């Protein structure tokens, strides 16, 4: 087994029989997060974990108002809650503002029933699977389970499975993608988070590693050159069409409130959806272009029937084969005293 696979396995090892807070924080850090920047810090007190934003890891080009950053914190919070409950703890989650006015999450832990074990077991197996799926549809029972998992006060979601609707959505995705590829700041920022070589992937343990995006690793000097040649609009447009055609559907998440609290809620709803999908043996991956490209977003919202509001995440789902796992920084690096 190569060093990359070993590193991915190590961070994803199962919870021990009596997990401590560090084990639970490790599971929280396995959450989905934008560009795998891992924009979080965990402040542990006796029975409380605060999840703080790490603005040194923000991505201003794709995420100028820290919308994705707060969704990522919501994803981590949901993993933390699920892992804590599966280890017999109760959880109470609240949001607060620090002295600078920045929102953070506090999770108070106590004694409780053992619940959520199915979703907790899915945490180390969940991944963004950026490949072609097998094109099959989901049963009503599967769709119901996904919908039930994603249901959360403060969040609405649109499950789209009709092929005609998916074809219409594809146009927004492709136009959004073209707008992003025409934006040098977006492309430069994306490139800065790609870890082209295994060596750098393992050293930094963050960012988008080549294997997890379906590309071979390459030397750090060569990767950006190959990326420049391979990252072409025509090829990307065709790939998006194949990816959506092979998927069973799309889910679009919309927060009631366009605030950090609202975005944290979206992260929690999406992460639960993703964990349930994983538990059911299903795959998911983001197709966020129409919500990231600000010029496309209003038309996309209108098409969804929510004119004037902000759709927050676009995620495809279906059946496919797992890909190499992404890495995370060691838990010691994300815990602050
Ligand atoms: C708010 C948010 C936005 C994301 N946007 C994209 C995206 O546009 N394209 C994509 O391929 N993945 C996207 N992702 C998935 C992350 O890149 C992924 O979670 C991260 O690289 C870690 O990989 P993993 O999900 O396999 O653990 C997003 C995730 C979050 C939480």
From TrEMBL:
It holds the Pfam family Nitroreductase. GO terms for molecular function: oxidoreductase activity. Residues 125-318 form the Nitroreductase domain. This is Nitroreductase family protein. It comes from Yoonia maricola.
